[in-house]
Automatic annotation (TrEMBL):
<keyword id="KW-0614">Plasmid</keyword>
<feature type="domain" description="ABC transmembrane type-1">
    <location>
        <begin position="77"/>
        <end position="283"/>
    </location>
</feature>
<feature type="transmembrane region" description="Helical">
    <location>
        <begin position="31"/>
        <end position="52"/>
    </location>
</feature>
<feature type="transmembrane region" description="Helical">
    <location>
        <begin position="262"/>
        <end position="286"/>
    </location>
</feature>
<keyword id="KW-0813">Transport</keyword>
<dbReference type="InterPro" id="IPR000515">
    <property type="entry name" value="MetI-like"/>
</dbReference>
<keyword id="KW-1133">Transmembrane helix</keyword>
<dbReference type="InterPro" id="IPR035906">
    <property type="entry name" value="MetI-like_sf"/>
</dbReference>
<comment type="similarity">
    <text>Belongs to the binding-protein-dependent transport system permease family. CysTW subfamily.</text>
</comment>
<feature type="transmembrane region" description="Helical">
    <location>
        <begin position="72"/>
        <end position="100"/>
    </location>
</feature>
<keyword id="KW-1003">Cell membrane</keyword>
<feature type="transmembrane region" description="Helical">
    <location>
        <begin position="112"/>
        <end position="137"/>
    </location>
</feature>
<dbReference type="GO" id="GO:0005886">
    <property type="term" value="C:plasma membrane"/>
</dbReference>
<keyword id="KW-0812">Transmembrane</keyword>
<protein>
    <submittedName>
        <fullName>ABC transporter permease</fullName>
    </submittedName>
</protein>
<feature type="transmembrane region" description="Helical">
    <location>
        <begin position="219"/>
        <end position="241"/>
    </location>
</feature>
<keyword id="KW-0472">Membrane</keyword>
Length: 296
């Protein structure tokens, strides 16, 4: 007896195989690009970091032992990671109300706000940084305003300080925080707040119990982007921070360009990258937890 196969049963599975093959074929150029321009340089960086001396004559873990054995190196790493925490916290503090205001505004106001929000992205980072040098300088806008209002007798030292650097980074990285928040807040159902108000919740209680928990995915995404950008902002750290403070991007530049110690610079880069990736993974875990909380 000859077996008869229903055409409709085998058709979809058979048709899916060529489709999957085509998808992998389309992904190959991107995978090759990723391998050539990211994976290969990363492997070379790891290889250079394994040279035991600056002359690159022998291999060993001497560069990593040197880094972790010196309290100065650990202090630079810690101050860089802490800088990212400060910038991220302040960016969230100022960015959340701005994103909330955008979602509660009319079309004209939204157009004006979105222009203000994305304006830093439309300007060169060098131009933005020099603008902050003018603002924070001894004869800058802030000092002139404080002197004219009688709030200071002499010009304050704002430039080349951690406070000035944090202020500049907060403004520069603000779009990275606000845009994910706008996306999340725009998707919230306004009926939820109306329901909470009908049940007796005031504005603040409704915000803390409804709006804030539901916006956690946007908060996590914004914090992730802001933190990664803040700790690696070499130009802003160098120009606004000056030579008074040393952070990891500047330290790597110093070891590479000034001292020509490529193995130690590579080791510093690997340690810094792993540290930042650790923080990013923590944000990812928080993001997954927040999604579970939202869908609960």
């Amino acid at each position: 007896m000859t077996a008869i196969t229903a055409p409709g049963l085998a058709g979809p599975a058979t048709a899916a195989r060529p489709r999957i093959g085509r998808e992998w074929t389309l992904a190959l150029p991107l995978a090759a690009f990723f391998a050539v321009f990211f994976v290969t340089p990363l492997l070379l960086l790891v290889a250079v970091s394994l040279y035991a001396d600056a002359e690159m004559t022998r291999f060993g873990l001497d560069q990593y032992i040197r880094f972790f054995g010196d309290a100065f190196n650990l202090a630079v790493l810690g101050s860089t990671l802490l800088l990212g925490v400060k910038v991220t916290a302040l960016t969230l503090l100022f960015g959340y109300p701005l994103a909330w205001l955008y979602t509660r505004s009319g079309p004209r106001m939204q157009s004006a706000l979105i222009l203000v929000i994305i304006l830093p992205l439309l300007t060169s980072v060098v131009v933005r940084t020099f603008a902050w040098i003018v603002i924070l300088g001894r004869d800058g806008i802030v000092n002139n305003l404080l002197l004219s209002l009688g709030l200071a007798e002499t010009p304050l030292r704002l430039l080349y300080t951690e406070g000035g650097l944090v202020a500049a980074l907060v403004q520069v990285q603000m779009p990275l925080m606000v845009l994910p928040l706008i996306t999340t807040l725009s998707r919230l159902d306004p009926n939820l707040l109306d329901a909470s108000a009908a049940l007796g919740a005031g504005p603040w209680r409704g915000f803390l119990k409804v709006t804030l928990p539901l916006s956690l995915p946007g908060i996590v995404a914004g914090c992730l982007l802001t933190y990664a950008a803040a700790v690696t902002a070499f130009i802003t750290q160098s120009l606004v921070g000056g030579g008074q403070m040393l952070f990891m991007p500047q330290y790597i530049y110093q070891q590479t360009i000034t001292l020509h110690n490529w193995p130690f610079a590579a080791a510093i880069s690997i340690v810094f990258m792993v540290s930042v990736l650790g923080v990013v993974m923590l944000f990812n875990l928080l993001g997954r937890a927040s999604k579970g909380y939202v869908h609960a």
